[in-house]
Automatic annotation (TrEMBL):
Its EC number is 1.1.1.100. The gene is fabG6. It holds the Pfam family adh_short_C2. This is 3-oxoacyl-[acyl-carrier protein] reductase. PROSITE patterns: ADH_SHORT (PS00061). It is an enzyme of class 1 (oxidoreductase). GO terms for molecular function: 3-oxoacyl-[acyl-carrier-protein] reductase (NADPH) activity. InterPro entries: NAD(P)-bd_dom_sf, Sc_DH/Rdtase_CS, SDR_fam. The lineage of its organism: Archaea, Methanobacteriati, Methanobacteriota, Stenosarchaea group, Halobacteria. Belongs to the short-chain dehydrogenases/reductases (SDR) family. Keywords: Oxidoreductase.
Amino acid sequence: MVSLPDSVAVVTGAASGMGRSMAEAFADEGASVVVVDVDEDGATDVAEHIRSGGGDAIAVIGDVTDADSVDEVVDRTIDEFGTIDVLCNNAGVLDDFTPVGDASDELWYGVIDVNLHGPFLLTRAALPELQQGDDEGVVINTASIAGKVAGGGGAAYTTSKHGLIGFTKQLSHDYGPEIRANAICPGAVETGMTDQMIEEMEAMTADTPAQRYAQPEEIAAVAVFLASDDASFVHGTAVDVDGGWLVD
Ligand SMILES: NC(=O)c1ccc[n+]([C@@H]2O[C@H](COP(=O)([O-])OP(=O)(O)OC[C@H]3O[C@@H](n4cnc5c(N)ncnc54)[C@H](O)[C@@H]3O)[C@@H](O)[C@H]2O)c1
């Protein structure tokens, strides 16, 4: 039995990595999916892949840092599917582990813009749709273990992900029970973001309980759970999906 029947899910950064896996997993669970990304070819490919497997998906080329583009994402979703039930603010960029003394204004604002301002813009634009209807709206924000401890990124990345967890809690506080907002905190995951640092990820995860990095599908499975009624009493939390990275 599918766990997201008749749901409409918007996933940002869905052209690759975890966003792609989330979009495909949501479609497998019966949701209609809006694949949002700045990467036109990638987003189109993901939507076509979902449709070719019998699922329902459209690609919307959108930049989460741009208010007009975000409005377009919401408008296209309403035109195509009528509402928004699940919003996954997943698009993100890394900061090459740059410490504060070496971070340019451009790097700082660029990372904050995508990782924190983007989720704010799209959540605000989607709120009326998420609040509509009898069922609660669901927001899932892809944070990181860098949202809980230092060292999982540089200054801008760590700050953005700590901020995203705070944003998730405040959203939950202000809009529960109509909206169920949660964050996911992945550890090291093999995606487009990290494919140049596989050796580093192996070293970073060697001492964790799982002793390995993750595949994106392992994070998407948790997103499906959080989007489903199985998570009906899960509000405002930041779920570690990190192979136990944070146990020590
Ligand atoms: N890979 C990891 O180890 C890891 C760990 C913890 C958290 N994360 C977080 O997971 C999320 C997904 O990252 P990933 O690892 O799958 O990386 P990825 O690079 O494979 O995917 C990120 C996607 O976001 C898109 N994107 C970037 N800027 C955008 C914008 N302004 N508007 C719309 N789309 C944009 C990119 O085109 C890309 O398709 C990010 O928020 C990242 O910070 C990743």
